[in-house]
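Here is the promised in-class demo. Please do not try to memorize the tokens; focus on the logic of going from shape to residues.
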């Protein structure tokens, strides 16, 4: 029996190491975004500072381990077999959940999932115990309802609190410093730096020391008794130090940003470490207590009163976890992509970043907010508005800087403080979302949410909050289900679940390796947006544009053929699926066009003027092709879904050759563009023109039939629409070929191509 549970604990430790690596790779890089986005230091320097913070934070995180031990349920009412069932259900559910959310591409949070998985597993085991009648207790007795409710409220309130604090603090900071902050540092930077460093010192060290096993008790007592004196002394010292550094021509804001990076990394490790190893260490503690004190008592009879005690996590576990996190942080291949996403979201540049898309809720929020702001503006004296607007007048920064050092300082210091407050109160907060919401609030205060981007950023905020609720519900239900299966299935069910988790881990690893193969696309985008060599940008841009047009052509050709064949079989399912895919393709095409248009702004102006007309002709043709497919597919889908008379065999046989010719024309044009060989362009264009004439004749013939028809008019109308739109489809295809011939022409032949 002990061997079986030892294997379970071992598996939990393996999973904890994996969680540490994945968690740091995906979440911890968020505390790097402000330093990297503002270019406060080289990436290696930022990583070094963050690594030290992570390592120190891991050593101070012992107190947070109590959440997994007795923060959600009352362990004195549970037996060893039951708590192991709860803990194993949590780690297994976590893998299931992460795999599901990664597959669906939905946002998630390790903090939210851990809390609600514990709550779900403990809840269902409590219900089973109550139903069995083995004890006279209520759900309030078995679960730590007060503590659980406090943690849940703190998690969800942290979204609003982080956003509001980020908005208010950044607005005040910008009023003080303005965007021309370099002219306003002499009399203010000392106090600003003193407040920032003192606040970090208080929350990161004084508060953090309470949960650390590395600091002697007498030192803790001294700090607690002399807290105010230490704070005042620190403020005076650091204010003078920062002012002196400014006089010595040292950029104090960069120092504050690096200290803030350290503090946020420390807060991340101190707060989020429990998400990765807290449950595993609680399981180890339970196993050690059982093997040391059970003495012949069955696993389902040994009460786990030991979990009521505060966690005394061995230092080597914390140091080992910190080492794993530092290693993952420095070697993560995902860091650059996550960093770029975070930076783009809060960038001062109004780049119409629509990575989250738009939503009716976001549009209404933006509209209402705009109306409220307009109403307030009308009531505000003009001189006040002029003064505030002058303080918020943007300053042109380097192209590689997403926002300035003032906002980077506020983001880092404020996010670190908020997370540290939660940690000191032993309340789990989502580091990812606190950082995200502070960044969103500060970017709103800095007026980075312009009319062109506000709806997308509001949608992003709503998506994150919605992801929290989805994560919470899914974690609770899944952990409850897994715990129920393992409770009734015993050790056999536990090992089956472990086998399923291993399979999911292997599958996720394989899928990740497949995703790594598409990094060439990201590399092209990085070159287009970051390279200073205009010739290199132009060469890569042409290649990227050719691939975009080729993708749309192949998609359009296949979709056109699929829809006709599905309508011929009277099958509505492929029609519905095709229309959904067309909408997705339109969204992708829109993003690629916006990105490539920005790339056109980075090439030689003469080349851009010469080629932009033909580029936009190509992309307009692609968009119109997709619109034409929608106009073809929607009548077909409606006809098939309503089970109207299917397309007659006569019409199927009549149009099938035309469908094949349209399909082949698109494939031929795709080959011309992707191979950049236009030697056959005139011949293909001529064939397309002849096919258009043939379809025009077929349209006239079908119109005559329509007036003489005594059969199904609905079917005749859909068939006529197919012919008409196919004719228009070919017109756009020919325009695409014409524009491609001139856009991709060699530079020295460009004018001749016109």
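The designed amino acids, position by position:
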């Amino acid at each position: 029996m002990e061997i079986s549970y030892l294997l379970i604990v071992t598996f939990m430790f393996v999973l904890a190491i994996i969680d540490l690596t994945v968690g740091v790779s995906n979440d911890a890089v968020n505390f790097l975004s402000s330093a990297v986005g503002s270019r406060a230091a080289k990436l290696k320097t930022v990583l070094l500072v963050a690594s030290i913070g992570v390592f120190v934070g891991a050593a101070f995180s012992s107190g947070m381990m109590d959440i997994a031990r007795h923060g959600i349920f009352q362990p004195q009412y549970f037996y060893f077999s039951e708590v192991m069932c709860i803990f194993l259900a949590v780690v297994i559910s976590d893998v299931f959940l992460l795999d599901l959310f990664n597959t669906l591409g939905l946002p998630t949070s390790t903090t939210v999932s851990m809390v609600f998985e514990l709550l779900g597993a403990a809840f269902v085991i409590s219900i089973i115990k109550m139903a069995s009648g083995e004890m006279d207790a209520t759900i309030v007795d078995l679960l730590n309802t007060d503590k659980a409710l406090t943690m849940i409220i703190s998690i969800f309130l942290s979204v609003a609190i982080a956003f509001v604090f980020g908005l208010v603090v950044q607005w005040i900071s910008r009023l003080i410093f303005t965007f021309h902050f370099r002219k306003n540092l002499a009399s203010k930077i000392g106090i600003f730096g003193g407040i920032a460093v003192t606040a970090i010192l208080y929350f990161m060290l004084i508060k953090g020391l309470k949960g650390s096993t590395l600091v002697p008790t007498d030192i803790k007592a001294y700090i607690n008794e002399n807290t105010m004196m230490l704070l005042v002394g620190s403020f005076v010292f650091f204010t003078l130090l920062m002012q002196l550094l400014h006089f010595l021509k040292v950029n104090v804001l960069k120092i504050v940003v690096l200290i803030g990076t350290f503090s946020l990394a420390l807060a991340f490790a101190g707060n989020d470490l429990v998400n990765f190893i807290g449950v595993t260490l609680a399981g180890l503690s339970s196993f050690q207590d059982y093997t040391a004190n059970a003495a012949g008592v069955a696993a389902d009879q040994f009460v786990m009163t030991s979990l009521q005690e505060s966690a005394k996590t061995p230092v080597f576990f914390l140091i080992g976890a910190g080492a794993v996190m530092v290693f993952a942080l420095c070697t993560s291949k995902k860091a650059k992509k996550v960093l770029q996403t975070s930076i783009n979201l809060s960038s001062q540049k109004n780049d119409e970043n629509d990575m989250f898309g738009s939503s009716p809720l976001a549009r209404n929020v933006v509209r209402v907010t705009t109306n409220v702001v307009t109403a307030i503006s009308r009531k505000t004296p003009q001189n006040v508005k002029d003064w505030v607007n002058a303080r918020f007048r943007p300053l042109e920064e380097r192209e590689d800087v997403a926002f300035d050092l003032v906002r980077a300082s506020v983001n880092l210091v404020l996010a670190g403080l908020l997370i540290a407050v939660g940690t000191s109160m032993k309340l789990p907060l989502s580091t990812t979302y606190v950082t995200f919401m502070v960044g969103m609030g500060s970017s709103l205060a800095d007026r980075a949410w312009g009319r062109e981007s506000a709806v997308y950023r509001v949608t992003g905020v709503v998506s994150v909050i919605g992801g929290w609720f989805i994560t919470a519900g899914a974690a609770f239900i899944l952990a409850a289900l897994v715990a129920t299966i393992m409770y009734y299935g015993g050790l056999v069910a536990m090992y089956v679940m472990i086998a399923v988790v291993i399979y999911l881990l292997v599958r996720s690893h394989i899928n990740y390796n497949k995703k790594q193969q598409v990094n060439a696309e990201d590399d092209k985008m990085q070159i287009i947006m970051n390279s200073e060599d205009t010739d290199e940008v132009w060469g890569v841009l042409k290649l990227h544009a050719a691939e975009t047009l080729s993708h749309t052509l192949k998609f359009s050709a296949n979709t056109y053929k699929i829809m006709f064949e599905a309508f011929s079989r009277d099958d509505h399912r492929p029609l519905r699926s095709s229309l959904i895919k067309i909408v997705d393709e339109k969204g992708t095409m829109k993003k690629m066009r916006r990105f490539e248009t920005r790339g056109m702004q980075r090439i030689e102006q003469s080349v851009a003027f010469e080629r932009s007309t033909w580029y936009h002709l190509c992309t307009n043709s692609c968009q119109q092709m997709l619109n034409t497919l929608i106009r073809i597919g929607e009548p077909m889908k409606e006809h098939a879904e309503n089970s109207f008379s299917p397309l007659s065999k006569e019409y199927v046989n009549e149009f099938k050759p035309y469908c094949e010719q349209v399909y082949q024309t698109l494939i031929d044009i795709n080959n011309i563009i992707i191979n950049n060989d236009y030697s056959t362009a005139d011949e293909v264009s001529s064939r397309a023109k002849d096919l258009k004439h043939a379809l025009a004749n077929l349209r006239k013939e079908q119109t005559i039939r329509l007036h003489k028809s005594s059969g199904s008019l609905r079917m005749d109308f859909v068939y006529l629409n197919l012919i008409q739109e196919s004719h228009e489809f070919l017109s756009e295809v020919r325009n695409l070929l014409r524009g491609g011939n001139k856009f991709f022409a060699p530079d020295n032949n460009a004018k001749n191509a016109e």
